[in-house]
Amino acid sequence: MKLWLEETPLRDCFLVKQERFHDERGFFMEVYREDLYREAGLPARFVQMNHSKSARGVVRGLHFQYEPPMAKLMRVIQGTAYLVAVDIRPGSPTLGQHVGFTLSADDAAQLYAPPGFARGFAVLSETAEIQYFCTGIYNPAGESGILWNDSDIAIDWPVDEPLLSDKDAQAQTLSQWLARPEAERFRYE
Fold this sequence. Notes:
By secondary structure, the chain is mainly β. It has 3 helices and 13 strands. It has helices at about 35-40, 165-170, 175-180, and strands at about 5, 15-20, 20-25, 25-30, 50-55, 60-65, 70-80, 80-85, 100-105, 110-115, 115-125, 125-135, 145. The protein has a 6-stranded antiparallel β-sheet, covered by helices on one side. A hairpin with a 2-residue loop joins strand 3 (about 20-25) and strand 4. The longest helix is centred in the N-terminal third of the chain and has 7 residues, at about 35-40. The protein is globular, with a radius of gyration of 16 Å. The N and C termini lie far apart (about 35 Å). The model has no long low-confidence stretch (mean pLDDT about 95).
């Protein structure tokens, strides 16, 4: 298997692309291989995989976990979605900046964002299923979020009337997060 990292404007955040083998039956690909991830400088150990299915117009996020700090590798396995990562690391030269990519089940691409990034997505197809490989076990006492439409981040979400959870609709702003002592856990050095 071949693995390529495509740099984004945000340091430590990458599009991960893998080789697919196609024939008349369909395709085959290795989604994750520990040795190749380690060689590429990505986390080689994921401890949890999550799977969500959402309807058109759903926006989930912007989510992150600070205890334990969690990196995520996100992939679309059905449908099409706009995946986003936002740098929330105090002291980072790209603090508050984001990247967004429209990915689909037809792509052999995944979005990797390390700890210190908030992540989210918007569903563009009738439905979409997203898988998240995580480097930390989910801890509801150590998770948080940033408001999906925080004007300081200014994400141009490709949905007109997003469907949001109450939790996401009432999330804190980036400036509120940065005022919390927990934000220092992501201090950029």
